[in-house]
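Pair request: fold both.
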Amino acid sequence: MSVKPPKMLTKLSTYSSLLLASLVFPSLNTTAQEPVGPQSAWQMISEDERSDVFAFAEDYKDFMSRAKTELSFVSEAVRIAEKAGFRALPKSGNLNPGDRYYDVNRGRTITLFVVGSEPMVDGFRVVGAHVDSPRLELKGRPLYESEGFALFQTYRHGGIKNYQWVNLPLALVGHVDKKNGERVKISVGLSEDDPVFMIPDLSPHVDHDYRERANRDVIMGEELDPIIASITPSDSSLKDSVLGYLKAEYGIDEQDLVSAELAIVPALAPRDVGFDRGMMAIYGQDDKLSSYTALRAILEQSKPKRTAVAFLVDNEEVGNVNNTGSNSDYFVDLLAELVYRERGDAYTDIDVRRALRNTKVVSSDVNPGVHPTYPGVWEAGNAPRLGYGVNLKLYGGGFNANSEFMAWNRAYLDDANVKWQTATYKGRASGGTIGNSLSRRNMEVIDYGVPVLSIHSTYALSSKVDVHMLYRAMDAFYRFAD
């Protein structure tokens, strides 16, 4: 990948089939049969731009097929960034305009930046998003037997609807760290020839005693244990058989699972949705969607005026905690180091404080969109719709960006012809994402993203044109002159 990753030649047939479908079925042309009201983003783009949208979506799906957790997101981001000319930030040395670096925090957070031509004390341009997604994780001692099955005990990372995780193929991904310093990587279920794991639901023939459970309790948290084996050997227990397999295949024993980060994620490949292929079903779009578009946007920057930064961080789904979350001092420490390298012996603490005060931030995260079956959860006039572009979040309750910064963002979005809308939740104020962590450091922060259906589920739904519009919005943010 250079400035723009190459279009995937193997996917051209997909786009060709779309064009053919639009000719055979005129109703599939996105300029026809749209609802009364403002134009959708599909209606405002040219045929060449539509081709770019679909090509971008193919790259996004390919990336997301591998980036299932924050660990795999960061490793994929490093691979792509290095192909685009980024290199790991050295421990010392001068920084020159146009230099392209990345810095990885403990394998779970990545910051990429392109050095600008103006002093860093004058502020950075930061796009921030999070790379963790709701999932199941293995407990420290997960393996047990029940009724002739071997299972893993799990707990939840982030808010999920438990019942959505049953009756579907699941994969096990992550690593085990051994006492001798060796790291053993594990990935089972993502390749076509791999086995998968599954949490089976109760059949309707025998679930009579459980039918009164409320929506969120149909499946309880402690019932989210996937089956991992079922053949009991004649000379040992099923649990011992699994442990024997882990020892033979990976060289790990039961004690090693205490120092492991192993996640259970859907073993579902990204897929197009609809006859017109205008949407995508993908696990983990909250918020790898925003993180991927930020990654692609930072790759486009060559020699910006203000140093351009993409801060892609872990643990938002559990409250921005730990030393890889946005509440950590990691990010401010990194910016302080960059300012110090630029200022040299003249550096003082006030330099980084001024830099933070002058920094502009886009905190990007997805949010629910208008649902065709349940439109009433939104007020129509303040509702974000799939296919209508980027949505600026107006939370109320003290969480909004100030009006002058909101106007500044409107200016570059309009200048770049980026389709945008607004989103305000019905009946209550709400804040979130990583924006609060950055605004409390005195940075100027706006929160925007794109609408997605089935957020926090095993297979969320996004619009291809919205994803591309978000990428264009971030690119315009980096380039816009004060």
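--- second member of the pair ---
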Amino acid sequence: MATAMASEQSDLYIYIACPWTPVGGGMFKVADYLIQSQAQQTPSHAAQLRPLDSRGAASPAFSLWVLLTALAKILMGRLSGKLVGVHVNMAGRMSLFRKGTIIAMCRAVGVPSVLHLHTQMDLFYAPMPAFLKNLTRWVFSAATTVVVIGPVARRFVIEVLGVPSDRVEIVINGVPDASEPRHRAQPGEPQRILFIGNLSERKGMTVLLQALAQPGFDRDRLQVVIAGGGDLEHYREKARALGVDDFVRFEGWCDQDKTGKLLAAADLLVLPSVDEVLPLVILEAHANGVAVVCTPVGEIPSLLTDGVDAFFVTPGDVKDVAEGLQKVLGDPELLAALSRNGRALYEQQFSLRKFFARVARLHQRHFGIAGQAREEFLSQEQAP
């Protein structure tokens, strides 16, 4: 009997919907981490997680075809009886409407859906015309449940979008453990600052370059690596104009392996963003025991503690960013404490195992038998 049930359940699956390409940014990485980890963390008889591309990486016309294909897959999965739920990862702007279409399809054919919000919506929701606001509220109400990353987003979804509080859950993201052995700095070696993210003003790129041009840095002992896609030539020219190009190196976009190597070699990660939710790169820095200097925006101050597991600097304040970097680099005990405490927080809150367990419990509650099939794994995972 048990063997027959295991065989029956092995064909069940859950779609994880997002743009399945690195242009999907942190949302793609979260989804990809779940897919990567399921072989090690899911019983063989559980419903399997499968990618569902919602956008593609080509032209807008091709993106529409990808979306229509995704809708067809949901319908076919429902008709086969093997699709038990769709986990929809949503950012802002056009992502809202693409994913809203997927949520609408799920509701129409009777497939449970989880709407997983990966952005702070208030900035682009406020100027929307009334009919788009009404459409947004409908999309969130149509999902079986809404998942957010922290309390700031939860309040917005409940108070502004009107989703009942018992249908809004917080699930903190997680990332893989360090993939490379940590480099231990030797006396006389350069101090290494690392930035990882899309090169943009939202990430504070100009502020960072201007901060690095401030007096007080020991340029002979400083190396700064800037990794990420975006307008590299624009920011390279800014670095040259500011006179910091002799110790600032632009790596361009980096894959997961290269990112792991950069983190293993870094003393400090800096992220002076003006708008974030909870950047995965901060969690990845904690996984690697790298001290973090960042701005207290989005969910960051609700999950990190200034001076304990991160050092906060003021968004947009060039002088404060420069002074924060110099303070942490100039105080070995503070640098070591931030590294040590960040790693401890990773193990407590941000490990991929704990994240996978949270998502598995979520699926268990809302996707029924598919979630029940994961009890073998969940019974071994005691963390919340």
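Observation on the second member. Confidence is low (pLDDT under 50) at residues 1-9, 370-380.
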